[in-house]
Design brief:
Layout (H helix, E strand, L loop, with lengths): L1 H6 L3 H7 L7 H10 L13 H4 L4 H7 L1 E7 L2 E6 L5 H10 L17
Amino acid sequence: LQEQERSGVFFGDLLERTGVLKENAVVDLLVHHTRIPFLNLHDYVLEKSSLSVVRGDFCRKHRILPIDKLGLSLTVAMVNPLNYGTLNALHELLPVLDGWFPGWRNGHGR
């Protein structure tokens, strides 16, 4: 934990770098416990219509990427999908997202 505080690197990354956990073990663990899917963006085709919904500066600041839009539904990839500050900022920007992730406004998962 001291190394994480000193370097600012994600704790899971440190566990992988030191060999405590195998590569992607943290992702697998988070996917299993949060039921938030992992999407490898290397093979994903981004929809132009989704990219125009959220400003680029907002995306960079909050480390998100709108990847798909269907009607009023917007799929957003996030570096940290448990970041409730980012979820709140998205809700302020796009109020239609209310109820998207049960409990997110209270800081609770599913």
